[in-house]
Every structure is written in C-alpha cells, then in structure tokens.
Design goal:
Strand 2 (50-56) and strand 3 form a beta hairpin. 41% of the residues lie in helices and 27% in strands. It has helices at residues 2-24, 84-103, 109-127; strands spanning 42-46, 50-56, 59-73, 132-144.
C-alpha cells in the first residue's frame, strides 16, 4: 500500500517537474501574433423619406422631400443608441433646411454634391468616427404647399 502511494507521489513529482522545466525553457512557446480587428464591412441603407418645410416671410411655401442611400462601415455593431438611419435623417434634415433657407429655387447641381458631403461630415461628427463612406441622393422633390396632401 505504501509502495502504491510512493509511486503516485513520484509520478506527481515527475510530471510537475517536467512541466515547470518545459515552461522555464519555453519549449511550448508559440509565436503568438496579435489578432487584428476584422476589416469593416461596408453596408448600404436607404433612409426613410425626410420632409423639410420651406419657410419664407409668408409662412410655409412648400416642402422638400428627400431620401438618401448611405454606405457606411458597420463596425459599430452591438452599441446602443440611435440607428444609422436616424442619425442620417437628422443630419439630412439640418443640411437641407440650411440649404433651402438660402434659396432652394436657385440651387445648382454643385450644391447637391456639397449637400451630400455636408451630411456625411455631420454624421461622422455625431458618431465620433469616420463611418460614412458615401451618401447618394435617391430622391429630391419639391412639393408646393397647395399641392401637398392634407
């Protein structure tokens, strides 16, 4: 019985000793490379219709109806808060309202390019990172007040 216990203790000592020696000599060392973050996947979403009133001295003269297609890096998964569509809609409303406050009827095609750039920059500022890849205009329509549904 004592021989059995002694043999068990001897086996424990041998295994422990060889393990410690292997660790000290770094026999099981692997060249561990740091895991790189996965590349950001680019996703595309279409915003809901954004209705922006055109206000002048006489009151509301009409509405600008817009819809945008947004390509963005989807590395923000799992974070709470507003969705990308909500942030883009907010930025689009502010940018279009600012643009129509100047003079919507005198707008040119160059203004549309600056409008999409302004929306992308505004969304990136709100999210605190450069997430937006591209903003495209899907629809941009003017509806006069008398033509609007009631």
């Amino acid at each position: 019985m004592i021989r059995m216990i002694a043999a068990g203790l001897w086996a424990i000592l041998v295994v422990t000793g060889t393990s410690v020696l292997a660790i000290e000599l770094q026999l099981f060392r692997k060249d561990v490379k740091r895991a790189e973050p996965p590349p950001a996947v680019i996703e595309t979403v279409t915003t809901n219709m954004v209705s922006v009133p055109i206000v002048n001295a006489q009151g509301v003269s009409g509405y600008v109806l817009t819809r945008f297609i947004v390509s963005y890096k989807s590395q923000q998964k799992g974070k709470g808060g507003p969705t990308i569509q909500d942030v883009v809609a907010d930025a689009a409303f502010a940018a279009v309202y600012k643009a129509v406050a100047v003079d919507f009827e005198a707008a040119s095609r160059a203004d549309l390019a600056s409008l999409t750039k302004e929306i992308a920059a505004s969304v990136d500022r709100k999210l605190g990172a450069q997430v937006i890849v591209e903003v495209l205009i899907k629809e941009l329509t003017f509806v006069a007040k008398q033509d609007a549904r009631r």
